[in-house]
């Protein structure tokens, strides 16, 4: 049995770190950037760390991806542990409560930044892995799904992704991390695109054809010249990750998700 | 400096007052204006900053604060100009409609660095809620800033720094 307090403490620390400390992969790239606002971008993560202030005022909706071994036993549903952890972190720290109760009618703030979004996947074994994204609204609004015709080729898929980022990329705080889900059903493709965002920049798809496509898209998207803050200097994307899955003969779902330049994410693991 | 003299791409540092408001506050403001009632804030001569701050830590004038996506609020831009606002501050590219509104009303749109809310909060000296307190981070605030970094993204002639 994995103790709920052990899970909670580790998750809380990871969420605090993701909001306050710059992602080391991101820092390395930002340090080399010398375009407009570079002084403030660099000053920001020094101030946030020293003063325990969030890197961005939009401290996001927390989205969890839970991989739970089939032999793992928990004290309570994992969703309860995770929501409690989020509620505690966002109350204890000067973060923003960004979640409203009802999406359409009464958009009243829940005052806890919960509920979080929790996706659960059961896997083999005795370990529990929890990945998460601290997802800002600006980048989330760029999410898009297209049900392409099943005979569409690689070029058509690339065109869709490039056109989308060209039109909207400047709104989501570039450089962006681009996650692409191809295949499955509509909802599966969206989920895959989000999972792709939990990867580190250097990882590549294990299938060489998809790995090649990731690299080609990265090059084409950087050729757009959107740049840091959309101001034309520096790279446009850090990395492109694709996750794929078998699909129906009549479908080719393609989903695109992006993460903003801060790429606030984390991963914690436990053994039962 | 006159608003009409600013050119797209120009970098400035601004010190003075800003009116902070975003999506829901503007929606409510529009409902009030449409009913022919008096708006709860006077926007004449003011600069509107599209933002919703994080919680204020004790002893600080304001919490982490930074721009949100301006394009979401393009439909409310003309209303702000009609109410007398002279400029807006946010992040990202805006629609053709917003560019046209800036040109027609001789107003400008600035960008300020996004995702740098800890650093920007150091440039805010004072903050107070002006209206719609129940909206929490989406309330209307008045803040006083010092050396706030801005780039003119759309100038009063409709020139823009963003690629078409």
From TrEMBL, chain B:
The keyword Transmembrane does not apply. The keyword Cell division does not apply. Belongs to the class-I fumarase family. Keywords: Lyase. Pfam families: Fumerase_C. It comes from the Bacteria. One of its GO terms (molecular function) is hydro-lyase activity. Residues 3-164 form the Fe-S hydro-lyase tartrate dehydratase beta-type catalytic domain. InterPro entries: Fe-S_hydro-lyase_TtdB-typ_cat, Fe-S_hydroAse_TtdB_cat_sf. It comes from Thermotoga petrophila (strain ATCC BAA-489 / DSM 13996 / JCM 10882 / RKU-10) (Thermotoga naphthophila). This is Hydro-lyase, Fe-S type, tartrate/fumarate subfamily, beta subunit.
């Amino acid at each position: 049995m994995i103790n709920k307090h052990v899970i909670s403490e580790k998750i809380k620390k990871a969420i605090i770190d993701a909001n306050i400390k710059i992602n080391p992969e991101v820092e390395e790239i930002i340090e080399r950037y010398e375009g407009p606002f570079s002084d403030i971008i660099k000053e920001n993560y020094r101030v946030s760390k020293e003063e325990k202030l969030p890197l961005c005022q939009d401290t996001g909706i927390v989205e969890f991806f839970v991989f739970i071994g089939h032999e793992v036993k928990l004290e309570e549903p994992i969703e309860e542990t995770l929501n409690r952890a989020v509620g505690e972190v966002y109350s204890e720290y000067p973060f923003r409560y960004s979640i409203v109760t009802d999406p359409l009618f009464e958009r009243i703030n829940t005052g806890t930044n919960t509920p979080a979004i929790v996706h659960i996947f059961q896997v083999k074994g005795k370990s529990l892995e929890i990945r998460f994204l601290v997802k800002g609204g600006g980048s989330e609004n760029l999410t898009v799904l297209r049900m392409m015709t099943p005979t569409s080729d690689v070029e058509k898929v690339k065109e869709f992704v490039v056109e989308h980022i060209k039109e909207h990329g400047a709104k989501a705080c570039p450089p962006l991390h681009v996650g692409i889900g191809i295949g499955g059903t509509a909802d599966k493709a969206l989920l895959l695109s989000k999972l792709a965002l939990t990867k580190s920049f250097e990882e590549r798809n294990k299938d060489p054809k998809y790995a090649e496509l990731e690299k080609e898209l990265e090059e084409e998207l950087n050729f757009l010249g959107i740049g840091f803050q959309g101001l034309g200097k520096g790279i446009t994307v850090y990395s492109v990750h694709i996750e794929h899955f078998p699909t129906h003969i009549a479908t080719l779902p393609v989903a695109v998700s992006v993460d903003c330049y801060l790429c606030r994410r984390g991963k914690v693991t436990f053994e039962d | 400096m006159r608003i009409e003299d600013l050119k797209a791409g120009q970098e400035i540092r601004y010190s003075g007052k800003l009116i902070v408001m975003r999506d829901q506050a503007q929606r409510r403001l529009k409902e009030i204006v449409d009913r022919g009632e008096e708006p709860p804030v006077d926007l004449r001569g003011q600069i509107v900053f599209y933002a919703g701050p994080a919680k204020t830590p004790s002893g600080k004038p304001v919490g982490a604060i930074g721009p949100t996506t301006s394009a979401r609020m393009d439909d409310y831009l003309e209303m702000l100009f009609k109410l007398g606002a002279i400029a807006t501050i946010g992040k990202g590219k805006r629609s053709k409609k917003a560019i046209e509104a800036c040109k027609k009303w001789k107003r400008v749109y600035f960008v300020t660095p996004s995702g740098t809310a800890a650093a920007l909060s150091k440039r805010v000296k004072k903050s107070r809620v002006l209206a719609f307190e129940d909206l929490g981070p989406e309330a209307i605030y008045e803040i006083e800033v010092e050396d706030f970094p801005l780039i003119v993204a759309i100038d009063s002639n409709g020139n823009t720094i963003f690629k078409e």
